[in-house]
Design goal:
The complex is a heterodimer of chains A (370) and B (164). Chain A is mainly α and 370 residues long. Chain A has helices at 2-21, 24-40, 45-53, 149-170, 182-201, 206-228, 242-259, 262-269, 276-322, 328-365; strands at 58-64, 67-72, 74-79, 82-87, 101-103, 106-111, 114-117, 143-144. Chain A has two domains: 74-146, no CATH class; 150-365, no CATH class. A three-stranded antiparallel sheet of chain A has the order 4-3-8, with no helix packed on it. A three-stranded antiparallel sheet of chain A has the order 5-6-7, with no helix packed on it. A two-stranded antiparallel sheet of chain A has the order 1-2. In chain A, β3 (74-79) and β4 form a beta hairpin. The radius of gyration of chain A is 25 Å and the shape is globular. Chain B is mainly alpha-helical and 164 residues long. Helices cover 93% and strands 0% of the residues of chain B. Chain B has helices at 8-145, 147-160. Classes of the chains: A mainly alpha (370), B mainly alpha (164). At the A-B interface, β8, α4, α5, α6 and α7 of A face α1 of B.
Chain lengths: 370, 164
């Protein structure tokens, strides 16, 4: 199949593109391979990029001789008959709804990384799903709480963060002088305090929100960074997933709403200092603003990180679009350049998310003097 | 469209992960790190403030010292000046006194000389008078014997007679 052959090239390039660039004989093999596969299937850039940017039920490490090497991850489903768990390897890398897994008296198939209840019999293409005209399954589906690639990556990032900051905190026990990794983390912590928390929330209240802002900043940043590293166990596009940014933005929204004082609500529903018609005009706008603020947070992070991934993948895909190995140096140079920029972007996005969260919280607690 | 549809599973796990991360890090990392950093900054601030105070005190002390030194110097100067004045005064007094004494002595001496002179003159007058009388006696005696001889006697007498 075309996709598996393509996967060899793709993963090797993503993972070891320097090695690849310095091995001409190998590169020629790739060129030959892609020529063979042309006949089978057109290379679909959108599908490939979407596949990489989205979640998956197994962690794909690499392909070797047409055989995918991937880490199976647990699938946890809340079905009509209760909780069902099994390993994703039982689907045998199938993603088209062709392999049925029977558990707890129910049949499941995986289609485009979503789990559906299977039909009783396969259709002519071997799929146990009923697809509508837009190729979307019409089958019902259970609630999917699986430890997917992104969830796995997230747990990994949590462990990393606890490890890094646990170590940092330990080095303070003796005499309060930072040692080792704390020398690196302390300036960041101080930066969040001095540049994010204090200016936006104020000297009086900032201490309460420091744990939240620090956790938020480092959680986003480390996941952004992990997304940039193109090999196992990193490479998951977690912070470019809308569910991830939604939860974080929602937490900011909830905190903002809880800590908001009377002045904040007054400024939304009955803006002081303007004529009554203006008050009436501003109230719905300000009210919408309550929700637009966290939504903008959510979309900003999601779009920035996803865009970064799409750009890098698109540049790599140029090789396959032009079907020429001579494009490789250019596309690698560009993707390298973009990757360097992305390192900056991910840090800035983590900072902006944290900064705006602090700003929203700060503005909700602000005490106006007039 | 899939891209912007949040999965319920990921929502759930993100929330759980962030909650766990938040509480674990809050207890084991942020509290000690932020606490220590704040404490350290406070202690640095305090140390700087106390150093500033010490500096101020030092400055005060130096100022005091300088003031005392200045006063001492002024006093010394005054004492020296007084001593010099006293010295000058003593010298001039002594000079005046000496001058007065000398003047007085000179006047006394002059008076004494004058008196001596007067008495000497009186003596001389008396002697001249007695000599004159003697001469007159001899002359008269010589006259009486020889006129020439008499004259000669007078002349001799006169030649012998030395005034004073």
């Amino acid at each position: 199949m075309k996709t598996t052959k393509f996967n060899i090239i793709k993963n090797l390039i993503l993972g070891l593109f320097f090695v690849l660039a310095s091995t001409p004989s190998f590169a020629i093999d790739i060129a030959n391979d892609s020529k063979d596969s042309e006949i089978e299937e057109e290379f679909n850039v959108t599908d490939m990029i979407m596949h990489h940017v989205k979640d998956a039920h197994e962690f794909h490490v690499m392909d070797w001789k047409g055989h995918a090497i991937s880490i199976p991850l647990p699938i946890i489903l809340w079905t009509e008959n209760g909780l069902v768990t099994f390993m994703s390897s039982e689907f045998q890398h199938d993603d088209l709804g062709n392999v049925v897994v029977e558990k707890n008296g129910q049949n499941f198939v995986k289609f485009h990384e979503e789990i559906y209840y299977a039909n009783d019999s396969a259709n002519e293409e071997g799929s146990y799903l009923t697809l509508n005209t837009e190729d979307h399954p019409e089958n019902s589906y259970p609630m999917d709480f699986s430890i997917t690639k992104l969830v796995f990556s997230m747990f990994f990032s949590v462990i990393l963060l606890v490890f890094i900051f646990g170590l940092s905190a330990r080095s303070y026990h003796k005499n309060g002088v930072p040692k080792g990794i704390a020398k690196f983390t302390e300036p960041l912590v101080v930066f969040i305090r001095d540049e994010v928390a204090i200016p936006n929330i104020g000297e009086k209240n900032y201490k309460k929100f420091m744990p939240f802002l620090l956790s938020l900043f480092f959680f986003i940043w480390i996941n952004n960074m992990m997304g940039l590293i193109p090999f196992f166990p990193f490479s998951a596009n977690l912070s470019g997933n809308i569910a991830f940014t939604l939860v974080l933005a929602l937490i900011t929204f909830v905190i903002t709403t809880i800590v908001a004082n009377k002045e904040y609500w007054k400024h939304i529903f009955w803006m002081p200092g303007v004529p009554v018609p203006m008050k009436l005009f501003l109230a719905p706008i300000e009210f919408m603003g309550i929700f637009i603020k966290p939504i903008s947070l959510m979309i900003r992070l999601f779009a920035n990180i996803t865009a970064g991934h799409i750009i890098v993948l698109s540049l790599i895909s140029l090789i396959f679009i032009f079907e020429s190995i001579w494009i490789a140096p250019i596309s690698i140079a560009f993707s390298f350049f973009i990757s360097i920029i992305e390192v900056l972007v991910v840090a800035i996005q983590a900072y902006i998310f944290t900064m705006l969260s602090a700003l929203y919280i700060g503005s909700a607690m602000e005490e106006h003097e007039h | 469209m899939d891209l912007v549809t949040p999965d319920v599973g990921l929502l759930f796990w993100t929330f759980i992960s962030f909650a766990i991360l938040f509480f674990v890090l809050k207890k084991f990392a942020w509290k000690p790190i932020v606490g220590t950093v704040n404490d350290r900054e406070q202690s640095i601030k305090d140390a700087l403030a106390s150093a500033e105070n010490a500096k101020k005190e030092m400055q005060n002390l130096t100022a005091d010292n300088e003031r005392i030194l200045k006063e001492a110097r002024a006093e010394r100067e005054m004492m020296i000046k007084e001593a010099r004045d006293l010295k000058t005064k003593m010298i001039s007094d002594a000079k005046e006194e000496t001058k007065a004494t000398t003047d007085k002595m000179i006047i006394q001496a002059q008076e004494a000389i004058e008196n001596e002179k007067k008495s000497a003159m009186a003596d001389l007058k008396n002697q001249v008078a007695s000599l004159s009388v003697e001469i007159a006696e001899k002359v008269i005696k010589g006259e009486l014997s020889n006129k020439d001889k008499q004259l000669k006697i007078v002349e001799d007498m006169l030649g012998e007679a030395t005034l004073n």
